[in-house]
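Friendly challenge for the regulars: who can give me the structure tokens for this chain first? No prize, just bragging rights.
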Amino acid sequence: MEKTDRSYVRKIRYAVQWAIFFMVAYAGYKFYIFAQALEQGLIPSVSRPPSIEGFMPIGALMALKLWITEGIFDPLHPAALIIFLGALLVSLLLKKSFCGWICPVGTVSDAVWKGGRKIFGKNFAITKYIDYPLRALKYILMAFFLYVIIIKMSPIQIVEFLNTPYWKISDIKLLKFFTEMSLTTKITLITLFGMSLLYKNFWCRYLCPYGGLLGLLSVLSPIKIKRNDAACIQCGLCSKNCPSLLPVDKKDTVRSPECTGCLTCVSHCPAKHVLDTALPARTAITPEIFISGVIALFFGLVLIAKLTGKWHSSITYEELLSLMPIIHTLAHP
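First reply, four minutes later:
Bragging rights claimed.
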């Protein structure tokens, strides 16, 4: 058996994930300072970081429908649509790798279950008779949002929503969801944290509708994890280490929408050319090319948005200052 060591792939992934996480965390800190100044009736001394709009995917879905149907690109929170488009595009071409490499929530989820494994000596498994119905929850939530926005809402209704004071200040309301947490929110987050300690990627696996949508789209990706059965030594390390609990060692091609393209299975495989990312004709793609593609595709789109004026919000500081005194009275239309 010709051996190989691809453990470096995991190190690259951790470096990419945490670099993006700290970028987002810094943006969140800047946004907090920005919002604090507005609350005090002051013009902020720091600029508003557009990347925080990545946490507004439902509004981004509305904006996407409006852009496709009417050609109107939301000027109020354009970064939300750009980040959403980036996630969709990456998933369509390079598996659900937005979840496996870019999403900061996925990074935290990854760290929590690994912490749980150190505390308890292992992660627990939910029996498949419960696992399958639980996994359906994220698809039910996804179907609900798609039905309400794609089917029920007309372009006129979307325009009306995107021009409400609520949408203009929705990013700050989202911030307050965490800085002024209700008891229900605290209990929910503590419960999710506890379950994530015990079970691998509990939120991502069972409850994230965003990930559900990206997973279904990733099924169309031309690139898949492929296994050479003739050369496989049946060590089982790929399945044992898969964060998505997929039976990689039993598949010739991993087609599951749960696969995040994290390449953890590839990095643990000790046999050369047994597990690879590959095109339909089994043309292997090196991990380096795959990773570079994920980063270049997503951040390339962000760069294009910045260069074409589709990244920064058109909402003025004066508008935000006028809305701050009534922010607690603004409810979702």
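The first strand starts at residue 224 and ends at 227. The radius of gyration is 21 Å. Your move, everyone else.
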